[in-house]
Amino acid sequence: MAGLATLHVVCLPKKTERHHTYNLIATEYSKAIAKPKKTWKRKVLCILGVFFALAIVALIITAVMQNKPLPKNIKYGIVLDAGSSHTSLYVYNWPAEKENDTGVVKQVEECKVEGNGISHYFQEPVKAGLSIDACVTRAQQVIPANQHKETPIYLGATAGMRLLRLNNHTVADEVLSSVENSLRSSPFDFQGARIITGQEEGAYGWITINYLLKNFVEESSVLNLLPSFRKTETSGALDLGGASTQITFVSDEDIETQENTLHFRLYGKSYNVYTHSYLCYGKDQALRLQLVKNIVNTRNGTMWDPCFNPGYRRNTSTSELYSSPCVSQHTRFTTTPVNFEIKGTGDYQLCKANIQSIFNVSYCPYSQCSFNGIFQPVLQGKFGAFSAFYFVMDFLKVAHEKATLEDVKERVQSHCSRPWDQVKADFPKIKTKYLSEYCFSGVYILSLLELGYGFNADNWKEISFLGKISGSDAGWTLGYMLNLTNMIPAELPPSPPLSHGVYVGLMVFFSVLLLFIVLICWLGFRKPRCLQKGII
Length: 536
Ligand SMILES: Nc1ncnc2c1ncn2[C@@H]1O[C@H](COP(=O)(O)OP(=O)(O)O)[C@@H](O)[C@H]1O
Ligand SMILES: [Ca+2]
Description:
By secondary structure, the protein is α/β, with parallel strands linked by helices. It has helices at about 1-10, 20-35, 35-65, 125-140, 160-165, 170-185, 200-210, 285-295, 320, 325-330, 350-355, 390-395, 405-415, 420-425, 430-435, 440-450, 475-485, 500-525; strands at about 75-80, 85-95, 105-110, 150-155, 190-195, 235-240, 245-250, 260-265, 270-280, 300, 300-305, 315, 340-345, 380-385, 465, 470, 470-475.
């Protein structure tokens, strides 16, 4: 009791009637009386602390409320790839505020136009425009209606139209006008329909794959500090179409021909790029060249062809074969149109010999060439092979990394020797046109890469066969749109401000830290207002 009473007295150092504690009380009382400022200071400190804590809480609330992420503003863009064999419409989208970042544009739709490529409508150009209408309507369903007006739509035509223009400039213009009219009457922002050059086709394909592979900007990660993890290298691009094929890669060597040279400055880095587009060396035109070479093997209306599976038959004619500017320069076997039947023999070696005869590797006016007297520097770095390179290798099940050049050759050879009936029975869903040509295409791809470009058993492993990269098709269309919408800056944009999540996280972390420090300080400064029991 005495203890309690004493404690009470000490806590409230007023008068006391208890004489036996007087001395002690007097001491404490005098202490309190002697330093009244300290109590006052402590109170002020307490009040300041509370205000400080309240201010921090207010700061956090303000930060969270004020720094809400912007409502996601999605932009759209459309590109039509008017290839020699077919037209595809691609819809891309990206967050508006991030359009200069790398790898943010994504393909959200591919619509394959029914029927052939637009160059096939040379006899009825109006139908070329009509053919693409269904896919334009599909794009209207994919893109929100309120964005139609501001969505750019582009059409780029490739080698099929280049060949048609060579054959008949006027008709090529009529076909282009027809697709242009169709696109102009759509609700989208029409930005042009044109035949792109082979150089552009190569360049945009290279931009697409390196953009999708995020090769242009080094990712800031701890791993980048280790040399083996640095992602500074770009990948070369190999595109195989029906009427042309492109090879594009960064070269440290002197590029001896101006028409094969491209200089890019992208995201603050300069690139010296070699590119070449071989018109007539797409796989459909190359097949014609092979057939023309093989025409000598025609007897009694039958052409025995080693590049088709045994048992395969197809009717064709010399007029059909010679209708392309790719073959008209070759000496015609006969001037009168002759119908004949192609019959497959599935002979890999003979097929290879026929195909190799369409590559002229004996003439080169430069220090080094690929084929047909075209300059090509030494192959450098990794390569991404897409379009028909991928379709064919994927069908033959050798598109994966582990397949060696030898594996691919064996696979192609064994496929070529298979009877057509068996092949058809095994793949009933694949279009007959594609299925019947996988033997030829396999041998052609091997010849183009090995004899044409100079790949060998060693650097074969540098080639990756690419269909899609992160959901977007490998091809020239994405690079084309990125370029025309100025989405690839020449210089690296200033490092982006912190994202909302990171910003809020940091705010909360530092506020809690501050509160903690204040609390520690306060506890440190604070003197116990009461004496401990033990003192008495
Ligand atoms: N699934 C497939 N299997 C095999 N070949 C295909 C497949 N899909 C498309 N192709 C071929 O890919 C090529 C695409 O060429 P395309 O882009 O139309 O021509 P280009 O680029 O020369 O203008 C054509 O030869 C076409 O036959
Ligand atoms: Ca193409």
